[in-house]
Design a protein that fits this description.
Elements lengths: L1 H17 L31 H5 L15 H36 L13 H12 L4 H7 L12 H22 L11 H11 L1 H10 L15 H8 L1 H21 L9 H12 L3 H23 L9 H7 L5 H8 L8
Helix pairs in contact: 3-8, 6-7, 6-9, 6-10, 6-12, 6-14, 7-8, 10-14, 13-14
Length: about 325
């Protein structure tokens, strides 16, 4: 037993001799000549992943410049918005060119181009204008014949007055548009021309209002007409919306004492009318474009609406005419005047 104990002790001593003492840690206070010796960074590796790992270290020696760049994301948003606006402007100017060339100049659309307009078309336009908002037909129907209104098919009268009434509804919307300062001309004059030539003037305005401004200035003070239309937006909405509704009813049931047939015959006439008269065909374009521009403009100007009505107007803005009437009757003119 004694010799086994001696052998075990000898083996332990040899093992202890083979162990090397660990080097003392590097320190800034290790030398006697007060020279600082560098301390190793907490991560030392030639692996490409070491930089990513060391980014979690918090201290004065932590690597810099590896944090994600948030500024580039913030800068990307305005650039994307500018690209969208540029695309919208290009599409609007293309639509303006197509509108003028196709509806006014080329002979391929239904009816006569403006350079070959017939006397019958001029007669119809003048007569429909005399029946503006059905004033003369209604006066004549109740026995007031100071001026005799010309008689046209109820469908043609309804289509004409529907588009004109919708154009009237656009006036307070344009005069309260928060981007109207981009347009350097007279909005009142533009809307006046719009009453006669509809989207010939509205499409360019929709493109111009997308322009950027270098400095944000106060919106121009409204003129007398703009102020009156804005303050009377509630009444304008009721009148314009009422005429649009009456136009639809008149188209289907007006002049029942005349030989204009029932709803089926009137619908057939409308199809023939649009396919043969250039201005009737243009009204279809106007209705489609108005239906696009209405929710676009209302969405950009919801801040002009009374707070309690914002949700309703936001929902109804997609319904032709109805959404615009909702905007006008809910307009808080104190916010825009």
């Amino acid at each position: 037993m004694a010799w086994r104990l001696l052998l075990s002790t000898t083996s332990c001593i040899r093992t202890l001799h083979t162990l090397k003492p660990s080097p003392p840690p590097l320190s800034y206070h290790g030398s006697s000549n007060n020279k600082l010796s560098p301390r190793r960074p907490p991560f030392h590796s030639t692996n490409s992943n070491s930089i990513v790992q060391s980014s979690s270290f918090r201290g004065p020696l932590a690597p810099r410049g590896v944090a994600p760049c948030r500024a580039s994301k913030r800068d990307a948003a305005p650039e994307e918005g500018q690209l969208v606006r540029n695309a919208q402007q290009a599409a609007l100017w293309a639509a303006e060119a197509a509108y003028i060339v196709w509806l006014f100049l080329l002979p391929y659309a239904p009816g006569d181009p403006v350079w070959a307009i017939s006397s019958n078309t001029i007669h119809d336009l003048v007569g429909l204008s005399l029946n503006f908002f059905f004033v003369l037909p209604l006066l004549n129907s109740v026995g007031i014949h100071v001026i005799e209104g010309p008689v046209f098919h109820p469908m043609s009268e309804g289509l004409f007055n529907f588009v004109i009434a919708w154009t009237l509804l656009y006036a307070p919307l344009l005069f309260t548009d928060r981007r109207r300062d981009r347009f350097k001309g007279s909005l009142e004059l533009l809307w006046g021309f719009q009453m006669f030539l509809t989207n010939t003037f509205l499409i360019p305005y929709m493109a111009i209002r997308l322009n950027d401004v270098e400095t944000k200035n106060a919106l121009p003070k409204p003129s007398g007409l703009a102020s009156a239309m804005t303050r009377g937006a509630f009444l304008v909405g009721l009148i314009g919306g009422g005429v649009c509704l009456f136009s639809a009813v008149w188209s289907l049931f007006g002049r029942s004492d005349g030989d204009f047939g029932g709803i089926a015959e009137r619908w057939e006439f409308l199809q023939t009318y649009i396919g043969s008269e250039r201005f009737a065909y243009a009204f279809v374009w106007d209705i489609c474009l108005y239906a696009i521009f209405q929710p676009w403009l209302i969405a950009d100007n919801l801040q002009n609406v009374k707070t309690e009505s914002v949700g309703v107007v936001r929902t109804l803005r997609f319904i032709p005419v109805v959404g615009l009437v909702a905007y006008l009757v809910s307009l808080d003119y104190d916010k825009v005047l």
